[in-house]
Amino acid sequence: MTDSIGVVIPAYEPDILTLERYIESVRRVLDPVVIRIEIDAPKQATVSRLEEVADVNVSNTQRGKGAAIMEGFDALDTDVIAFADADGSVPATSLSDVVRQVSEGTAEVGIASRRHPSSRIVAHQTVVRRLLGDVFAFAARKMLPTQCRDYQCGAKAVRADAWETIGHHCYEPEFAWDLEFVSVAGSLGYEIAEVPVDWEDHPDSTVNPISTSIELATALVDVKRRTDAIATSPRFRDVTKTDRSKLMKTGSNGE
User: Glycosyltransferase 2-like domain: from which residue to which, for each copy (predicted)?
Assistant: First the structure.
């Protein structure tokens, strides 16, 4: 990989030892210019430990996963920017595969996919989480203009110049950001590479499967409306990231 790479890891109440090991692995495998931890409402002891192994940006409030990723992406100036979940469910070798699709010019956007037929699931989710995820993925494929197998897997990469455009249309602050990002990228005509990965579920995750599923179902309707509008509405195409920040703070859906 000849492009410069920056990695954002959003974190909220992470397992510090797991995160430290994951950062070490990402640094060894990808050799990124920067690893930036976007952490919400942490203890000072946590910040002190993480500052020894990565750049850390602290929010004293709980912004949500999407808001944390977007702040991190906007702050980086590398050729390729990527994010990975803090639990390391997508190992560094698989994250590297996702980044390589973008760095080598195969696509402007790379997304990890647990549901790709070539993916290897090391540890499965519970039956309930897997069922909810399958139902959501099916509904999203039926509703959204951007078709893929797995919208929510926790590793994605994008060329910086593509993010400049895609980011103008993203303002989901929570877990629905993954869905929005993929749908916006596809609606804007960017090539998306869906990449098989090794993946391991972490049952101690802070994600509540029931409340998150409700959030995603609600967001799916909003994301469909917005991405449908991107192609036809100058107002949607001309929105800036400054406008996006205002929309997030006010809770507006962009209409």
Answer: 7-164
Q: Cα 143 to chain center, whole Å?
A: 20
Count helices and strands (H / E) in the chain.
10, 9
Q: Give tens-digit pLDDT for 154-212.
A: 999 999 999 999 999 998 999 999 999 999 999 999 999 999 999 887 655 556 666 77
Neighbouring residues of 105: CB distance < 8 A, sequence distance ≥ 6? none
Could you tell me if 80 and 160 are in contact, meaning their C-beta atoms sit under 8 angstroms apart? yes
Q: How far apart are CA 123 and CA 171, in angstroms?
A: 32
- φ, ψ of residue 81 to 5 degrees: the values are -125, 140
Using CA atoms, how far apart are residues 243 and 70, in angstroms rounded to an integer? 13
The reported pTM is 0.85
Return the exposure string of 119-134: e unless at least 16 CB atoms fall within 10 Å of the residue's CB, then b. beeeeebeeebeebbe
> Which of these CATH numbers, 3.40.50.150, 3.40.30.10, 3.90.550.10, 3.30.470.20, describes 5-249?
3.90.550.10
Structure tokens at 195: 């990449």
Domain parsing of the chain, residue ranges: 5-249
